[in-house]
Write a structure and sequence with these properties.
This protein is of the alpha/beta class and 244 residues long. The protein has a domain of 167 residues: TIM Barrel (Alpha-Beta Barrel), CATH 3.20.20. Helices cover 39% and strands 16% of the residues. The protein is built from 10 helices and 8 strands. The chain has an 8-stranded parallel β-barrel, surrounded by 6 helices. Helix 9 links the parallel strand 7 and strand 8. Bound molecules: 2-phosphoglycolic acid (PGA). 2-phosphoglycolic acid binds next to strand 8.
Length: 244
């Protein structure tokens, strides 16, 4: 497993093409001076191809592109969908099972599992999000249960090719009254996930910024972070990368 922290920027449905290009270039240039890290930028689908072109010129090894979602179908009459095969050679990573897809578009663990399988078939690393809606004594059990449903068909080597992101829904900044989990709490859940899925890299997501990133990355069980709103400002994102 790659030991460098993996920091994933989830730009969600934000940025014009002009902003996406400028911000991507700024992150790319800034990364030249930050070693021992891997940054993954997940812009809107429509900005992937232009950003992939920029990534190719004077490529920076610490930088990669990711998609925010993929279809759970292989190909065919699925208007508006984008297949894993279409993303092949364009991205190294793809987020699946994000709680916003679950909440707004009803993504089920079975659909997330189908996405994971199609991504692996196309040599793209899935970043599968798992998290509980409400913090309770049952949280760890709930989170492991979702991860089991997503990973259940996979043999051990394939499981190792998947990244799990523990992202408690109550900690995502877009929720009113969101509270980041403490490093200790996130570490505890990530440790339980690691025990269940040995050698699978675990990230933490939910209100991560440059001030709290270290709290998470110092945990043995956490290999990086998924960052939403704080990743939209390239200066703040570079600070997160420096502090990770
Ligand atoms: P946040 O979002 O960092 O703004 O909480 C994280 C995410 O939704 O992936």
């Amino acid at each position: 497993m790659d030991q460098h922290p993996l920091i994933v920027a989830n730009w969600k449905m934000n940025k014009t093409i002009a902003d996406a290009v400028l911000d991507f270039e700024m992150i790319k240039n800034g990364l030249e001076n930050i070693d021992d890290i891997k940054a993954v930028i997940c812009p809107s689908y429509v900005w992937l191809a232009p950003l992939a072109e920029i990534a190719k010129t004077h490529s920076v090894r610490q930088l990669a592109l990711g998609a925010q979602n993929v279809s759970n179908e292989e190909k065919g009459a699925f208007t508006g969908e984008v297949s894993a095969q279409m993303l092949k050679n364009l991205v190294e990573y793809c987020i699946v099972g994000h709680s916003e897809q679950v909440a707004h578009f009803g993504e089920s663990p079975e659909q997330t599992r189908a996405k994971v399988n199609l991504l692996l078939k196309n040599q793209i690393t899935p970043i599968a999000c798992v998290g509980e809606n409400v913090k309770s004594d049952n949280s760890i059990f709930e989170v492991i249960n979702i991860a089991k449903q997503i990973l259940k068909d996979l043999a051990a080597p394939q499981r190792r090719a998947v990244i799990l992101c523990y992202e408690p829904v109550w900690a995502i900044s877009s929720n009113p009254n969101a509270q980041p989990a403490t490093g200790g709490y996130a570490g505890k859940v990530a440790r339980a996930l690691s025990k269940e899925f040995p050698a699978t890299k675990i990230l933490y997501g939910g209100s991560v910024d440059s001030k709290n990133i270290r709290e998470f990355t110092v945990q043995d069980s956490i290999g990086g972070a998924l960052v939403g709103s704080a990743s939209l400002d390239p200066k703040e994102f570079l600070e997160i990368l420096r502090n990770a």
